[in-house]
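REQUEST FORM: STRUCTURE PREDICTION
Request ID: SP-0412
Submitted by: Lab K.M.
Chain count: 1
Length (residues): 424
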Amino acid sequence: MPLASNLLPLASQFPGVKFVGVDSSSAQIAQAQDCAQSLQIGNAEFYQVDILHWNEFNIMQGEHNTKFDYIFCHGLYSWVAEPVRRAIWDIASTHLTENGVLYLSYNTLPPNIWRETVRRAMRLIGEPTSAINAQVRSLRELLHYFADNLSDDPRPYARELKSEVLQLQKQSDSFLIHEILAAHGEGFYVLDIAEKAREYGLSYLGDAWPSRSRCLTDLDFVKNQTEPRSLGTDDAHEISEQIRDLISPVSFRSSLFAFKEVCAENRVADDNPLDPHTVEKMYVASSLVPVSDSPRCADSSCEDFSDPRGYYLTFSDPVLKSAITELAALWPEALSIAELKARVHKLLETSENAPAEQISEDAPISITENLEHTLIELFQQNLVDLYLERPRIKTRPEHPRVLPIARQQFSRLGWATNLRHEYQ
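STATUS: Completed
RESULT:
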């Protein structure tokens, strides 16, 4: 990414952590170094290095045995040749600490079948040696041709392909170059990625998005109806997530990998749920907001809540309605569970319609016990955020302060990374 737009915001947010960024592009590295220097970010280092020659580079640097707690490989795996992919796994298995985690993003199958169809069609009519602008024009003409010829076709195949074509038509030239015109752009099944990880001594920990790691498929069904060894894995969680991707697929995944012992202890799944006692020590934020301007939190009436993505939920429990309403007023700021339960207790205590059991002397305790389980469910659906430490994000003031790194990104790129590491 230009200006190390993934790494520098993290380095700025965590000044006590050392970050190392590598790229084969000398221009990208020079931009990142210049940006870090101008922002006085001293805990980030950048090196131009070909991943295929990583070990030679480390020996030259005198850091052959350097270990990292986290290794991020974003927007690379699907777009490089197989030797580079093998090098990525080798680097991760060699340089992760004992409890380290690899973050790996990639295009997935089956959704990318439709994108691969466009890629193959483009290879049939395109001229890879022509100027990139000419290739983009040819691709857009191809997309227009596909859209016209698929417009009246009622078959499921045609509908899916047309949907992909219409989405590609909306994308920028740079996106089309990266996704369609690049030499590589493969999609992968989750199970195949997990199998490749095992070749290098790593195991699948889960997805970076909590809702993707909660296996909705019944694990007992998977264990009873499949023969895991025939699939090259004895891990029903991987099989379950693969089945889910076949039923409800996503086109892009961000998966987490670690050594087997770490995964066994820390994987979050239906038969190893997030512990409510752990949640009690965390911080919570939510973008859910009440649909009504004056939500009735104290009684058991139904209230609708929505989030920016267009999801709607209905709650009737007074504690939950009060908690979500309090979080909505502070978004994107996070509260500790203790702070949230105190606010809920105060809100219900001052309400005339609150049930007696919610405002007793033991109410904060019962509120916490009841609330934690619901927060876990909402977290697993990406409807609330949970943090191990209080984030620096505050409620949006009337006159928000723009961080220097955001100013620099916007002036050079036209967009910026916020404190939630989202592109704006």
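NOTES: The longest strand covers residues 96-108.
Reviewed by: T.R.
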